[in-house]
Amino acid sequence: MKSPTTPGSTLSAEARLSLQTRLIALVVAVTFFMENLDATVIATALPTMAAAFGVTPVDMNVGITAYILAVAIFIPLSSWIADRFGARRVFAGAIVVFTLASLLCGLSQSIEMFVLARVLQGIGGALMVPVGRLAVLRNTDKKDLVNMIAIITWPGLVAPILGPVVGGLIVTHASWPWIFYVNLPLGVLALIAALWLVPEGREENVRAFDSKGFVLLAGACASILGGLEWLGSENGNAMLSGLGVTLAGVLLALWAIHHCRHHANPLLPLRTLSINTFRVTIFGGSLFRLAISALPFLLPLLFQVGFGLSPVDAGLLVLAVFAGNLALKPFTTAIMQRHGFRKVLLVNGVIGVMSIAACALFTAQTPFAVIAAVLFAGGLSRSMQFTCYNSIGFADVAKEHMSEASALFSLFFQLAMGMGVTVAALLLRASMSVQNHDLQAQATDFRVAFVGVALLGLLALVDVLKLPKHAGESVLKRN
To answer: DSSP string of 275-294?
Structure first.
């Protein structure tokens, strides 16, 4: 029998650790899918749910907003809580909260109960994915980082595309509570796996809780997202109020940044922003994610309002994006290893921007095959760019700083994804106002929105130009 110090035994231990980390990544991927699916699956069910609660479909938007705000507010807590109570305990607890909240959403008999359940669900989601990602990052060698990030990232890409289709199918062939009940078996399986696989991950020396930092960060996130949502209202007074709340959120954000930079032990340390590769994925990467996240909102609207397709048919057409995501997934790592992060981010980013701009050229007479081909190409680019940004972001982060980096990444990720739909809606509404399209968006309004979103994606690539040629190469080395 070999001693624990023999080479054979060491290789066996490394293999076991690699397998465990891959399994943890799969569990986190499932929770990432649950969280992102829940953020979008509700969209096509809003009219049915509104009828059940006796309110208007517009009133149901509060369910989406409440979820996004809860996630954004509580994400800054994820780093401190994971260090204080341990990654396994917090991750498992977050899965329990998210799953029970899903059950409460399905059992809701009123809009008030539903909103409370969505807030609880958002709190669970805010802790679930960042802490799960942290458990993976802490147990992953640099050489395996790209593969682990790819496993975690891909379900989050798929969920926003599948969400409207799944929601439409469930409402059509079952009943709206099943939108939330589908989380129950996934949650139970994820909980069992988390308790079995995830290391305790508790830090010995935990910094004191920064209550002022939490209030500032939570207030900034809630004000910016809520204000932008309000800004998209058709009511003129509400738009002015939304502008005021958004500006207040920006001021709170500046105050929070100043506090985090000068406080001895801030809730959300910002030192990882001094790392070039991490900074690029936070700023340029978030801007690109914002542009990309607008598409699942704009495309179904264009196909239904502009082309007269049914919600299900519109959703099925958007599945071409999902097909592109799926087709490229097996090749993303090899492409990054061959060409490097900087070149891939630039070239693929331009392709992604062109695919967004091409959507502005769609008309009711455009053959569906052409539309599907453009969306498929966009899906290929989307998959590559997300994986690339997410991988290079943690390439140069030391393991002792993974906790704060994961929380900061998750905060900006959620803000970008939440603001994507809002920015797209603002572009649509601005075009409608300028062109006096008071009742319904026209084809020209969608063209303005797609071009505006594409320009945001192009602006995101300016950050990539600052990267050195061999940026992040430590995680691209072949085994």
So the answer is: SHHHHHHHHHHHHHHHHHHT
Cβ 90 vs Cβ 131: under 8 Å? yes
Residue pLDDT, tens place only, 225-245? 778 777 765 555 667 777 888
* Among 204, 205, 179, 194, CA closest to 128: 194
What's the pLDDT tens digit per position in 285-315? 889 988 888 887 788 778 877 787 776 677 7
Number of domains present in the structure of the chain: 2
For residues 214 and 267, the answer to whether their CB atoms sit within 8 Å is: yes
Please state the length of the chain: 479
Token look-up 């917090």 returns 90
Domain C-terminal end among 158, 192, 209: 209
Q: Is the pTM of this model over 0.85?
A: no
343 belongs to a structural domain: yes
> What phi-psi label fits residue 436: left (phi over 0), alpha (psi between -120 and 50 degrees) or beta?
left
Contacts 24+ apart (CB under 8 A), 363-370: 363/443, 364/306, 364/307, 364/308, 368/317
d(CA 74, CA 466): 32
Amino acid at 390: N
Q: Are residues 278 and 158 in the same domain?
A: no
Q: Is 84 helix (H, G, I), strand (E, B) or coil?
A: helix
Residue 221 in any domain: the answer is no
Q: Identify residue 244 by its one-letter amino acid code.
A: G
